[in-house]
Design brief:
mainly alpha; about 80% helix
Length: about 325
């Protein structure tokens, strides 16, 4: 009997270790998506200098769809598309709706401001994830998220509080915040549907491409893209598809709160690229904001239980 108990508990320990390793791997995979998204603001700002919004979305979503369709054909997984209607509705609104709001925001406000407002979604994920089954609020994650939020706020206002927000950018800020809400809710709901195949992202983009094309012909005039713009939109579509795959896998199996905190690194990387390309001036407030974001990530990613345990063992 004793041997049986040891065998069972030993097996449970091994299973727990496997789950832990899988969670760490999935969380790392999610960081790959964040790196891809750090290039998003610069690429979109280049494209929207000339191309209309819905035309850009059509080309971007279409590229993502065809890439995923090739993947499904090669792996013979088209049968995975048989999913509940709710999954399709949430996916299309989450993936395509957030991109529509983001690109619209870039038309009305500086890309750097839009990027930082849009990246309030990690803080929203940290808050909303506490309401999920088997999840709970932890102070390190909340504090880390708040530090990131403060960093974003200081950058947008220049340290002057709400009075520092420029009114002529308000429509862009509104759409950027809408994009943040849509994507945070999609991330949370995606966690609930852990068995949903991540390849569905490409199909969401296919539906989004059709909708964007219809809207384009109703409200816009087709602009022939240059070679540079064609390459950028193809790169944006392919990289977005890859990022959606990585993020979908990470949010289903990884540490959701830690991913939310780590996401604050993305606007820091994005801002660095915008500064180097001359699209955003370097400023004292930018440095302060980045420091707060990085410190917030450190606070949220540390294993405080292990640290507390080590201090307890030293005192003993």
């Amino acid at each position: 009997m004793l041997e049986y108990h040891l065998t069972v508990y030993g097996g449970l320990d091994e299973m727990a270790e496997v789950r832990s390793d899988d969670t760490k791997f999935s969380t790392t995979i999610g960081c790959g998506a964040l790196i891809v998204w750090s290039l998003y603001a610069w690429t979109v700002s280049e494209l929207l200098l000339n191309l209309p919004i819905f035309q850009t979305l059509f080309l971007m979503f279409g590229t993502c769809f065809f890439a995923m369709a090739i993947r499904l054909t090669l792996t013979k997984k088209w049968h995975l598309l048989k999913q509940p209607l709710l999954v399709w509705v949430v996916g299309v609104i989450g993936v395509c709706g957030s991109d529509v709001a983001y690109l619209t925001a870039v038309k009305y406000a500086p890309p750097a401001h839009v990027d930082f407002i849009d990246y309030l979604w990690p803080f929203l994920v940290i808050l909303f994830s506490g309401f999920l089954p088997r999840e709970k609020f932890t102070w390190p994650h909340i504090i880390g998220g708040l530090l990131g939020f403060i960093g974003v706020f200081l950058l947008l206002t220049g340290g002057d509080g709400l009075l520092g927000l420029q009114k002529n950018y308000m429509p862009g800020y509104f759409f950027a915040f809408t994009a943040a809400i849509i994507w945070s809710l999609y991330t949370i709901i995606n966690r609930l549907y852990r068995e949903t195949p991540i390849e569905l992202v490409g199909m969401y983009c296919g539906i989004g491409a059709i909708i964007a094309l219809i809207l384009h012909f109703r409200v816009e005039i087709w602009v022939m893209p240059s070679l540079k713009e064609s390459c950028l939109v193809a790169l944006l579509g392919l990289s977005s598809g890859l990022a959606y795959l990585l993020w979908g896998y990470a949010t289903q199996k990884g540490n959701l709160k830690l991913l939310g905190v780590m996401a604050y690194f993305t606007p820091v990387l994005s801002m660095g690229l915008l500064v180097m390309s001359g699209k955003e001036p370097m400023s004292y407030m930018l440095i302060v904001a980045c420091v707060l974001v990085i410190f917030g990530v450190m606070v949220g990613s540390m294993n405080w239980e292990n640290i507390k345990g080590r201090f307890s063992s030293l005192e003993a």
